[in-house]
Amino acid sequence: MLLTTTINGRKKEILIKDDDYLLDVLRKEGYLSVKRGCDTGACGLCTILLNGSPILSCSTLAARAHGKQISTIENFPKEAKTFASYMTAEGAEQCGFCSPGFTLTVIAMTKELQDPTDDEIMHYLNGNLCRCSGYISQLRAIRNFMEEIKNENC
Amino acid sequence: MKIVNTSVRKVDGVGVVTGNPAYTEDLILNNNVLTIKLLRSPHAFAKIKAIDTSIALKVPGVEAIFTHNDVPETRFTLAGQSFPEPSPYDRRILDEYVRYVGDPVAIIAAEDERAAEKAMKLIKVQYDILEPILDFEKSIDSHILIHPEEVHTNFEIGYERKRNIASKAYSEKPGVEEGFVKSDIILERTYYTQPQIHAMMETYRSYSYFDVNGRLTTVSSTQIPFHVRRHLARALELPTSKLRVIKPRVGGGFGGKQTAVCEIYSAFVTLKTGKPSKIIYNRKETHTCTTTRHEMRLDVKIGSDLEGNIKAIDINVLSNAGAYGEHAPTVTSLVSYKTFPLYDTVPMRFNANIVYSNTMNAGAFRGYGATQGTFAVESIINELAHKLNLDPTEIRMKNLVEPGEGKYITSGDIKKCIEIGKEKFNWIEKSQVREVAPNKVRAAGMAVTMQGSGIGGIDTAAATIKLGDRGDFSLMVGVTDMGQGCDTVLTQIAAEVLDVPMDKISIHSADTDLSPYDPGAYASSGTYVTGNAVIIAANKMREEILKGASKMFNTNINEIEYLGNNLKIGNNLISLEDFAQRSISFEGMNQITTTGTWGGETSPPPFIAGFAEVEVDTLTGEVEVIDYLSVVDCGTPINPNLVQVQVEGGAAQGIGLALLEDIKYDKKGKPISDSLMQYKIPSRLDCKNIRVEISNSYEKTGPFGAKSVGEVVINTPAPAIADAVYNATKVRVRKLPITSEKVLLGMFDL
């Protein structure tokens, strides 16, 4: 089928097979920030935003993006870089393979939750696995990142 | 020190967080790469009688299908170890025998995954199904023989093919029998540690192609590019000069990528077809057809007087190598190597058999046997403390090593780690059992551990530095950053010695054509071994710059001062940029390149004292880690932030080992924990409060006083949590993981 969708603000028409998953289509189209960590929607690495909400692209059929807005981390250069500066300040990124999906989820969270507690942050991000960092440094980075956003909004 | 011992940001950090293409699969530029899939055995043990690929080959898009009839006869090991590898050469690319569920039967190369998978279903295999050994405790002298063929070993490792023994290990500190005679109390316990899965986020993958010069190039997510090249040369029967291995960014390894799990398949397909090819293991393959931590049964006997002075420890180990013997002779030895020196005055004996079975094969995993040894030895010391009514910290103070000149351990202080931990963890209060709510009990436990820094007397790494034409430096190393940050740490070390800002140095790692030799990232060697090589190369660079300047300016070398960005010649300053430009030009004709090579005589150990507070739900047996503190002594941290995150991450992985991670097989030997749904690694909610304290020391053989920190971090959670659970419930779980089921059933039995 012909998938008509918008990826990172650019309209696209992509010839896909009916059973293609969104992750594979995006990588084939060159959006290499989208990573595959599992095939069961269990790890959060393939997270992208569909109409602004985080979804798992490894278990979403590409056809479901028809007429919708897809965002990968490449669509948020400013936020991603700012968040990256907090992540790197903590040394929290380690292997970095889970970082793009994780960062997108954090960006979505900051738009969705007002002043979340640590528990709320951990709950929101619990589907994003990381095998390197032990998560604590990421929480430090998120807190600092949210602090900056808060100050910007003041 | 300006740059060393500061928490500078990682050189590649922003790039990876913002999603820059960097990993193996991102770098496949060719759109027509063959996709490789492996047909895998459904049987735990079988001999292939016949394979018919004729129908499968007719599937449109299928390029080739290879079976054991098409591959070289040569046997090899895939263990990432310096040559000559101690591991037995017990594999072929494809064999007529399959020895575990998932062992490859055929290699399918097709234009895409759909075609490959369609073809896979159409390959007809006739198996002679054999009775497997699924329980490694029944392996020795079984009527079933797992490796009927003759197997080469490079030296004596205790290999006894006819008894299913892949290797044996023995070591002794004399006085064990006398020690037991002198003991007032003797405990004998049996502990089991499970096979753990690395579960790195980037699964195994490689991509191969012929370059324009006809050399077979393999891009791989590996910890061991030089070892991979050597493995490929042997397996494919090619000269090493025809092979090149490139390692891009690696998305986690933890020792899994110290075994060349997948590279032979893409290299073989490209060799046979002439076409570029890729193989990417899916999560299921990664969890069922790669390597695991060695599963072990550890029988431990300890003798002590009534004051807690330990008189003897005797350890007998049965270790499961699985179907193939990668790392079989070496991993299990660390049960003794990393526990004997900690209790250096205690007579100790260690005896191990490492056996084959028809399960997934074992390999290297962060901690590398020290983890298993620590669980057993620290657990029995905790049990002894309870018997003697002593505080677990006290009994350790009586028996732990005092470092000193001429001893195996010359620097650092594990007792200091305990002192710091007791205070920062609030041990005295937390080690008391407390009911915090109805059916919720809290208590604490602790354990200590050590590891090494590189493999003393064996592993040797090199670093090369090039002065660029505009006064910048290229640092080339063969060690592999898989997230731990060694690219950054090595750049810090080079910048410190060369006295320039870090952004003057670009690091390149690793490409077997361009990088100087390095055994790779394992045995906690990056900072210590390669770091020392970087120091040598950087000091040589300073000397060569001075020599070059002396010649160029016709000045005595003693009158030139190296100031990093500038050279002071008499009263004149000349910038390094200017000097470099002139040096490389017609005027100087001198491309300055220096190499340092270093290997350690010893392997100085980092230490950790680990403290765990748990909350147990007495109605369900559920265990939650409320607080975890690691007090680490890794010498002088080159980058304290990176040390801290290494320690936090290792503790999390250790908590996974302690509480969650378990491979389950069905009755026929098929692994059923084949996804991240079934095989649970810790999530954010399992790691609420992991803390780190750094106890600084100075290791004089280390770069700027540093020791390693990569592996030691994982060893203490399991014994500390096990003891905390015992304190809370009086249930002693000696078989990891400590699941709610075991705790609850244990409470019923009390």
UniProtKB/TrEMBL annotation, chain A:
Gene3D superfamilies linked to this entry: 3.10.20.30, [2Fe-2S]-binding domain (1.10.150.120)
Alphabetized PROSITE patterns for the sequence: 2FE2S_FER_1, 2FE2S_FER_2
Keywords recorded for this protein, A-Z: 2Fe-2S, Iron, Iron-sulfur, Metal-binding, Oxidoreductase
Ranges for domain 2Fe-2S ferredoxin-type: 1-76
CDD domains: fer2 (cd00207)
The protein's name: 2Fe-2S iron-sulfur cluster-binding protein
Organism: Candidatus Cetobacterium colombiensis
Automatic annotation (TrEMBL), chain B:
Domain of life: Bacteria
SMART domains hit by this protein: Ald_Xan_dh_C (SM01008)
UniProt entry keywords in alphabetical sequence: Molybdenum, Oxidoreductase
InterPro entries xref list: Ald_Oxase/Xan_DH_a/b, Ald_Oxase/Xan_DH_a/b_sf, Ald_Oxase/xanthine_DH-like, AldOxase/xan_DH_MoCoBD1, AldOxase/xan_DH_MoCoBD2, AldOxase/xan_DH_Mopterin-bd_sf
Domain Aldehyde oxidase/xanthine dehydrogenase a/b hammerhead stretches: 18-131
Classification via Pfam families: Ald_Xan_dh_C (PF01315), MoCoBD_1 (PF02738), MoCoBD_2 (PF20256)
SUPFAM superfamilies (UniProt xref): CO dehydrogenase molybdoprotein N-domain-like, Molybdenum cofactor-binding domain
Record's protein name: Molybdopterin-dependent oxidoreductase
Provenance organism: Candidatus Cetobacterium colombiensis
Lineage summary: Bacteria, Fusobacteriati, Fusobacteriota, Fusobacteriia, Fusobacteriales
